[in-house]
Every structure is written in structure tokens, then in C-alpha cells.
Write a structure and sequence with these properties.
It contains 8 helices and 21 strands. Strands 6-7-8-9-10-11-12-13-14-15-16-17-18-19-20-21 form a 16-stranded antiparallel barrel. It has a 3-stranded antiparallel beta sheet with strand order 1-2-3, with no helix packed on it.
Length: 532
């Protein structure tokens, strides 16, 4: 039974329980009394007055119990206080504790002063050494970069990125003397031709600079049939300086290479090429004719020190012209449709400025199929150590072509070649077959020539030590039975930093058939190449 109400001190009857509600004076709220125990619960029919009297009596009893408890607590508290006082320290001990506290406070203050002084000293030293460390660091970096260790570390991606970021700063440009705003200078040691690149942040303009030097020792052992004695020479086999990059956009490129072989300085290549699509590109200028694969391969990436005697006899070398080319189907195919002057290299010297003396141009068609994807035929080795098999097969034909890179005045020549090759895990195998048909302009029978070479390379130490061998043959005239020339060459190559620094050693035996006896010649050659 509960009693609830909102008027002053009223009780309401609710079955089984009784609750007294006292009117509150704040916010119109009522404050309920605690529930009375079941012993004082009103029964139906009992009077309220009787219940309230009984309630008042009980409350007065509870107060007397509370007062009696407080009176009993006083002597207990006195006893507890005496016990505490009995354990209170003496006055001398308090003085000693106060002295100890004072000493600790003074020591702490001294430590605070020392810490502040040390902090100030550290800040002062840091400010003093900033400039000194900067100069010392520059000198240390310069000395370190000249060591072999720095050269090895420089190939790491993190180091290259750090160098690139530093070279793009104003400080680096000032040190290098570039003095060009908004230019990025990069060191590109793994690039095929260049070693230093300068470009704009948007990539529309760039200049790549590189050079290559080949020093060669050669010993020739000749037969008496040649009418010459044995010879040995140390020579600059090749010395090249090249400039390339792009201009106006990322698709318009240029390349210039200067040749300083034997100190006879001249321009080796100069051309511009536009590459808007993989399927369609164009090149104009003076460059290698896209005829046979070994000639198109860079002389810096040959398996042996020089090209085969067959390649030298049939290739079309360099010329003035225009070339339309592309690599459709993700590099599985390649084509060239080109037109050239047809007068060959160093033509001004041969013809006294009348380069195209017969007023005929040379036309070249080339097609290639790479069954396993794009093939890097600019490199005759498998220095990359291909994990998957790569293969290529190609064919070319040149109309009004040259013979030994010389334009023939009285002949119309058609020259062709078929090649194939593969690379796989350090193995490189390349083959080329050549033929030439020379028709006299005055009429008569055609003169037929043919030749081929096959060569094999294998890395016995991946990317370091390579063995190489080649066999080549030329038949200058099919109608003559004893004019065949043959080449047998073996070699060993060691790569310090890929093609950028390597040593090549080879021994070649050359045979020229004669009417009475063959002429034999041996060559021992050692070559060191460095690209920078």
C-alpha cells in the first residue's frame, strides 16, 4: 500500500502499503517519507490518527538511541586520541625532518639551475655548428662521391632519388653553375647512352649528355701472301660524344653524336624523330639505315669487338633520309618504310660534293616479328639475363643500295637480309643471311653475292663473365669459285658495370681463298670501353 499526495501532510490509502508524502516548498515538488516497515503498515479500517501517534512515538525512541550512541562515542574517541598522542614524534625529530626537507629543496633548486644552463649551452652549440656542418658536409659528400663505395651505393634507388632531389635545389644549381630556373638535373648512370640529364619539370624540354671511349690493342699476324709484316697498335677504336633529348613536347626528340675516332672529328649522327604513337613514328636526318640488325645494334653493345665481315660487306650503314616506323601489337611486330639519298657515309669526300651523282634514291622496307613480345635487338648480348625466352625474326630489302657502303655508278643493286635471334638466361644467339643482286645499267647478266654469320654468347657468371664465338662467310661473286672469305672468332668479355665499363678480348682467324693458295690472317685484340 502506498500513500501519495500533493497537499500538506496527507496520507492516502493504497492497498497493502502506506507511504507518507510531505509537501515540498521548491518547484511544487513533493518529498516522500521512507516506507514504513510492515509492522506499522495500516490495516484496512484503522484510523489515520492512531497510526500517526504510533509513528511519532517510534521516532522519539530512535532519537534517544542516537543520543545514547553519541555519548558512548566520546570516551572512545578520547582513548583513541591518547593512543595517537603516545606515538607523536618529539620536537627534536621534527626539527631534523625540517632540515632534511630544506636541504632537498636547495639541492633541487641547484639542479634546476644546472639543467637550464645546460639547455642554453646545447642551443648555443647547435647554432654555432650549423654553418660549419654545412660546409664540412659539402666537402665530405664531394670526397665520398669520388670513392668506389659511393659508385656502388649510387645505383640504389633511394640514393638516386636523394641525389635527384638535391640536384633540383637552387643550391645545387648554383654549385653546378647551371643557373637555369625551374630545371631538374639528374644523374642517369644506367641510361643506354647518356649520363647526365637536364629537363624541365613538365618534361617538355630535356638535354641528355653522354660520351663513350674505346681503347684497343691489336696484334695482326699476316701471311707472306699479303706482302705485309706483323703489326701491333694501341688505338682509339671509338670516341663519341652525344647529345639528345626532347623539345617543345614529350614526343619530339633530337639526337646528335660527334665522332672523334683517330682524332678525325666529325658528326656521326644528327636527326629528329617524332613519336606520337607506338604504331606510327617518323625520323628525319642523318642516321643508320634500318636494314640489317647487326648494323643497327650499337657498337657499344656488340657481342664481339667489331661486326662480322658479312655485315661489313652488305650493310647500308648511315645515310640522309626519312623513316616511317612503328611497333604495333605491343611490340610483337615492327616495321620501317624509309627513303635515303643512297650515297653512303662520308659521301662528300668520295664524290667531291656531288653526292647523288646518278639522281637515284635508295628505298628500304623492313618487317620484324617478335613472338614473345618486344625484343631488344640493340644489344647483342643477354646482359639483362632474361627470365623468359625472347625471340625475333626479321627481313629487309634495299633498292638502289650500296656495296660496302659505296654507291656504285654503273649498277642498280637490290640487297636483302633475313635474320633471327633469341636470348634466354644469359644465352644469346644471332644469325643473319645476306644476298645482293647487281644489275648493270648497260644490260647483261646480274652479279650475285651472298653471305651470313652466326654467333653465340653465354654468361658463365651471370651479368659478369661471358664467352662468345662467331663464324661468318662471304661469297662476293657466285660465278667465281675461289673468292670466298671466312671468319672464325672467339672471345671473352668481362663486365664491371654492364656495357658502361667492360673489357673484351677476342682472337680471330680470317681466311681468303685464292686461285693458288689461301691467305690467312690472325688478329688478337683487347678492348676496354667506358661510358660516362
Amino acid at each position: 500500500m502506498f500513500l501519495a499526495g500533493i497537499e500538506e501532510n496527507k496520507a492516502h490509502w493504497i492497498p497493502d502499503k502506506l507511504v507518507l508524502v510531505k509537501t515540498g516548498k521548491h518547484s511544487g515538488m513533493t518529498k516522500p517519507y521512507k516506507q514504513i516497515s510492515n509492522r506499522t503498515t495500516l490495516k484496512p479500517g484503522s484510523s489515520i490518527e492512531h497510526f500517526l501517534k504510533k509513528r511519532s512515538f517510534l521516532m522519539r525512541g530512535k532519537k534517544w538511541v542516537k543520543y545514547s550512541f553519541l555519548v558512548a562515542l566520546i570516551p572512545f574517541s578520547v582513548c583513541i586520541g591518547n593512543m595517537v598522542q603516545s606515538k607523536t614524534v618529539s620536537a627534536g625529530e621534527i626539527d631534523d625532518l625540517k632540515w632534511q626537507l630544506k636541504q632537498m629543496e636547495e639541492a633541487f633548486a641547484r639542479q634546476q639551475e644546472q639543467m637550464e644552463a645546460l639547455r642554453n649551452r646545447i642551443e648555443a652549440i647547435s647554432m654555432e655548428t650549423k654553418v660549419v656542418v654545412k660546409e664540412e658536409t659539402k666537402q665530405a659528400v664531394k670526397e665520398y662521391l669520388s670513392t668506389d663505395e659511393a659508385t656502388k651505393v649510387a645505383v640504389k634507388e633511394e640514393t638516386k632519388q636523394a641525389v635527384q632531389e638535391y640536384l633540383s635545389t637552387d643550391e645545387a644549381r648554383e654549385i653546378l653553375g647551371v643557373g637555369m630556373p625551374n630545371m631538374i638535373v639528374e644523374y642517369t648512370p644506367e641510361h643506354k647512352k647518356s649520363a647526365l640529364s637536364i629537363r624541365t619539370p613538365d618534361g617538355r624540354y630535356s638535354l641528355n649528355i653522354g660520351s663513350r671511349l674505346q681503347m684497343q690493342y691489336q696484334y695482326k699476324d699476316k701471311d707472306d701472301d699479303f706482302g705485309e709484316s706483323d703489326t701491333q697498335n694501341i688505338d682509339v677504336r671509338r670516341a663519341r660524344l652525344n647529345f639528345g633529348g626532347n623539345i617543345y613536347s614529350k614526343d619530339l626528340h633530337y639526337f646528335v653524336e660527334i665522332d672523334g675516332d683517330k682524332f678525325d672529328v666529325g658528326v656521326r649522327d644528327f636527326y629528329v624523330y617524332w613519336t606520337p604513337f607506338d604504331e606510327l613514328n617518323t625520323k628525319i636526318g642523318y642516321f643508320k639505315v634500318p636494314f640489317n640488325r647487326q648494323r643497327v645494334s650499337s657498337s657499344s653493345s656488340l657481342l664481339l669487338q667489331d661486326r662480322s665481315i658479312a655485315s661489313e660487306f652488305f650493310d647500308q650503314d648511315r645515310d640522309y633520309g626519312v623513316d616511317l616506323y612503328g611497333k604495333p601489337f605491343d611490340g610483337h611486330m615492327e616495321y620501317h618504310v624509309a627513303m635515303f639519298q643512297g650515297a653512303g657515309e662520308d659521301q662528300a669526300d668520295w664524290f667531291q660534293g656531288d653526292e647523288n651523282f646518278d639522281n637515284e634514291l635508295m628505298f628500304v622496307l623492313h618487317a620484324r616479328y617478335n613472338p614473345f613480345g618486344e625484343y631488344n635487338y640493340y644489344d647483342e648480348t643477354d646482359l639483362a639475363y632474361s627470365d623468359t625466352l625472347k625471340a625475333t625474326i626479321g627481313a629487309s630489302v634495299a633498292f638502289n643500295g650500296k656495296r660496302k657502303d659505296v654507291k656504285e655508278e654503273d649498277y642498280d643493286n637490290i640487297t636483302g637480309t633475313i635474320d633471327c635471334g633469341l636470348v634466354y638466361k644469359g644465352i644469346s644467339w644471332n644469325n643473319e643471311y645476306y644476298f645482293m643482286s647487281r644489275d648493270l645499267e648497260s644490260g647483261g647478266e646480274s652479279l650475285e653475292s651472298e653471305g651470313f654469320h652466326t654467333q653465340l654468347g653465354y654468361f658463365i657468371l651471370p651479368k659478369k663473365l661471358e664467352l662468345a664465338g662467331r663464324y661468318a662467310m662471304i661469297d662476293p661473286d657466285d660465278d667465281i669459285s675461289n673468292d670466298t672469305q671466312r671468319e672464325y672468332t672467339v672471345g671473352v668479355n668481362y663486365y664491371f658495370r654492364g656495357h658502361r665499363s667492360k673489357v673484351q678480348t677476342d682472337f680471330g682467324h680470317f681466311v681468303t681463298e685464292g686461285e693458288e693458295e689461301d691467305e690467312n690472317e690472325n688478329k688478337l685484340r683487347v678492348l676496354y670501353q667506358i661510358m660516362f
